Give the backbone structure.
Amino acid sequence: MSTAPTPDWLLENGHVLITGATGFFGQALLERLLADHPTTRVTVLIRGRGATSAASRLAGLTRKPVFSALRKRIGTPGIEELLRTRVSVLDGDLTSPHLRLPDDLTAVLHCAGSVSFDPPIDEAFRINVTGVVNLYDAVSRLPVQPHVVHVSTAYVNGGRFGLVPEAPLEHDVDWRAELAAANAARDEVERESRRPEVLARLLSEGRAADGKAGPTWAAAAAERSRLELVDKRLVEAGRQRAKSLGWTDVYTFTKALAERVAEEYARTKGMRISVFRPTIVQSALHHPFPGWFESYKMLDPIILAYGRGILPFPPGVPDAPVDVIPIDFVVNAMLAVTANPVAPGETAYFHAGSGFRNPLSARDMDEHLRDYFGRHPMPDKDKGHITVPSFRFVGTGKLDGLLRHGERLVSAAERTVMRLPSSPRTRGWMTKVHTEKTRVEQLRKLSDLYSVYSAVETIYTDDRTLALHRSMPPEHAERFGFDTSVIDWTHYIREVHCPAITALQRQAGNRRPRAAGPKPLVPGEGIAAVFDLEGTIVKSNVIETYLWARLVDRERAQWPGELISLAGAMVGYAKTDRRSRSDFIREFMRRYAGASEAAMRRLVDERMGEALLLRAMPEAVRRIRAHRAAGHRTILITGTASLFLTPLAPLFDEIQASRLHVGADGVISGYLDTPPLVGEARAAWLRRYAGQHGLDLSRSYAYGDSYSDRPLLELVGNPTPVNPDPRLYRHAKKQHWHIEQWGANTHGALETLVETVNRVPGGVR
Amino acid sequence: MSRPGFVLEVDERTPSLLVHQGEGFRLEKFPLGTRVIYPPDSLPGIRDLDAAIRHALLNPHGTPPLPELLRPDMRLTIVFDDISLPLPQMRPPDIRGRIIEHVLELAAAAGVDDVELLAANALHRRMTPAELKRAVGDRVFRAFFPKHLRNHDAEDPDGMTHLGLTRHGEDVEINKRAAESDLLVYVNITLTAMSGGPKSVAVGLGSYKSLKHHHNVHTLRHSTSFNDPPNSAMHHSYHRMAKVVEDHVKVFTIETTLNGDNFPEATKFLQKREWEWNLRDQASLLAFKKANEMTPLKLRREIWQRNDAPFGVTGIHAGDPKEVHPLTLANVHRQQLTEIDGQADIGVWGLPFLCPYNVNSIMNPILVMSLGLGYFFNLYRNKPIVRQGGVAIFYHPMQNDFHQIHHPSYIDFFEEVLTQTTDQQAIESKFEKQFAEDPWYTHLYRNSYAYHGVHPLYMWYWGAHAMEHLGDVIFVGADRKAAARMGFRSASTLADALEMAKDTVGGSPSITYQHTPPATLADVR
């Protein structure tokens, strides 16, 4: 190790470039430099994002909690002054090969990187490898070589067992070949996903899922799943490639290759690079304030899941160290590394962790968490508090098996429920499946996270880092020390970290996002209230209507014939309906062929009208009337023939229904005058209608019961599913739409039929 | 000769007493000392009805005989009471139909061509063709339906005539056809003392504009009771309106009264005094009770609704309404009046399955309220059965169940108004106009079979006098939520109800149980 004779601990008059300044490390480094290194200038490499410029992203950073202690000390003007005098923004992007860096840099702190464990392989490489290449290309062109601190992770050592030294990785993977393969992967997967067989399969799945909403929706669903498929394949490609070479995931794999890039640049371009490998970085112990953290990291989801009683097992193997280090220790160590540059052409390695000299075992962790959550249980909305279950350690294999089983069960249950007809009971089941699915998905995420830390027998030595600490003058070490052996885990976990990360959840526990309640109707002009008919306003359907029409009209002796003919055709109808709602309506309406229109009208007036009203849901009628009272334009869109709607007609300003074609002889031909309005055709119609009548759809309301109503519902600002079918129910739950359950005081189907056909013309009995 | 009414004082030997409770009943052991009001025994019905009808038409009171009022070129309108009378429905042939046949015979003999029949359904639902047929009889139905046998339509913009104002400024608006007739023959059934007389034409053929002058909270609070016309502000208004009608239209009324035969032979025990039940009565009662309890609600409702009453007719009087009605009332009193001394702290009523507005329908919670606090509470003369500030205990299951076709505005009233307030005056001032003029309700009233939009509010006002008079109202066996929605308490047993009543009337209250049906009009001295 070749350190300067007297390290410049405060980086005096230095000029430091920070990449990834908006991240957890970057923020902490920036704050520390501005707060406690009065003569150091900083350049931050930030990418402007959308309309937000790089400069305003920086300004935004200083409003974050990390600066709150400093802000208290020197005030907002003080911080602005610091930004003006000591910080420059370099608007740029590591993925671009044309970076230009300031000439007078003394150090580069490279913190940028993808932290996701399973991004698609090309993304992981673009950020973690290509980004490094681009940056180091730019650095190598500088007239004076600054000291580069390359942030890696202790876990680049992959699945190695035992003590891992602060040394170059041992492997002979060619990073160029891997990079080229990763870059090519997307094209390959894209090509594969466009094969006709694949597209046909996706489209048929799209039709099954969204076909009811219309062909464009089915196509859109197919394309969505194609993109998902591509992503999934790329993620899988990354994970499998990493595993095949001995890494746990694509994150550690690319980080390891990035170290190779660094080493190569040092060797070939004479750069000075220190590789810095922290373990699991958690909230701050002292600086900027105890418990500071940026967002849930690494272990936090596991701790929270533990506290909320979701985790069925305590994490880990009892004797394995959970190698945790507070962020302020990491920052101090990193700045100390920065202050001790290596010679050109050399690479130095530093581990920052606690597992070697002050191990926190999984068993201890379990005890701390149990103690903490025992004393401060998490609130459970409306139900008091959650108790943390007491469990035995079982290891990750078991969890994984359990999860796989759970996932299989949940998806089977979901498939089954989706096929069931809509009823309050199936919706109840759907809710249960939905909850269970969320739980299993959560667990799956935790389990995947956890597998990263399951390299249980690995211990990272930190002799070189410790040597740096020991070489500090005592007064400096007092403020900037990073000897993790002084950390009192009991204090840190129970009093600092857990309270910090649970604080948000404790607040959130009382205001969890819930499906919005029914909002009062906003009165006003130019607002539409659009209703579907069957299942939304009335409980009956076209088949029921047909039975009323046919049976009241005929002698009882003819009933069996009619019923048998209908029953025989039902399977075919069901098939058609699954394929296309409009085809079904067309096909079914043919049954009316040959009936006299006038007779049918009389029948509706005298007898069927009542049946329709008996099957109407009072809540629906009330809601329609409430819309009217609020000055909204009430619209009925239905595939049912307009002929049958007369009893409900006075409720609507506009009725868009199918019209049965009537021949010159007054006989119904069984064909429709216009195509039935279903699925996305409804949305298209409404869009046009709204345009013509100056209706504001964003303030409008729509009601529907079936997934085929989704295009209509999504078109308006206030969508309300009524007694939704399982598919719509699932969608509504995801969107947090308010769901109505209507139909109290509504007659049963059979009861209505019996009453209708039994009635002496128009009579009650 | 039938036995007169009777007040029983419950002692150790008193058996459990029958208490009606929707589509069922209880046998209840009342506390010692409870006084039970029984109506007089059912009077014998007229044997030769046709002769009696003919006699009434030919020997009217205060007018020439009917044949003398008929001439060939006249407009004759025959109006009859609607489905709300009698209760239960009368076993066919209906007395209305029999009378109408006689009237039509006389009209035909006189060569009257222009004859129309109108159901006086006011703001009630239209009668279905089947119901009309049942009321007027097969022959008449076939001859007149649908063109000349119709329901009154109070919302027909071209079908009403404003006759003028009473001296109190009340609008009198009635059916145009009736108003423009040369003779209006009204065929009535008077079941309780509130019906008939001045009410028939002015109310039965009236409109909301006209009815709102007496169907309101103020009037009903001052109708003590509305079964005692001299003390009923509502009847005073009817009389003023009848006067206006009389100035415009010649009315020949035929009023009938019925005896107390509410139940068919098989369930005759339901109107016997309990200590007179023989072994057979007791056995059939137990069997019936068991079977009834095991039957699902919908079927049970159907069975009870099919229970036609084998009513006997106790009187037929025709002529000038003013002269006929006192005779009718005397007949009603003969059948229903029972004297009792003094008021009680607690009144008990068992509410049966039927009220005027759920024939062939469902008795919803609002109708239960109006039957209890309206109709039954007001079955008195002189003084209410319960003292001021006393407690009323009613029996009814009060299911939260509505008939969608018949009572659409009731559902909305229950869900949207009663959830805000149960205060009658507040409801009247804030919601009446809205419900009365709602175009959808009007559409359903005119074209479907719905009660008028304002009807549930009228039912709510119907209890105005009772609500003002009583200290507490408790429903035994009621759906708790439905009762609470209407501002009432519910108890599962009489003992619990009495316990609850303690807060209001103390530990040893006097109790009166008005044993009905058959209807009993208490004359409280």
Q: What stands out?
A: The CA atoms of residues 427 and 454 of chain B lie 11 Å apart. Chain B has a mean pLDDT of 95. The radius of gyration of chain B is 22 Å.
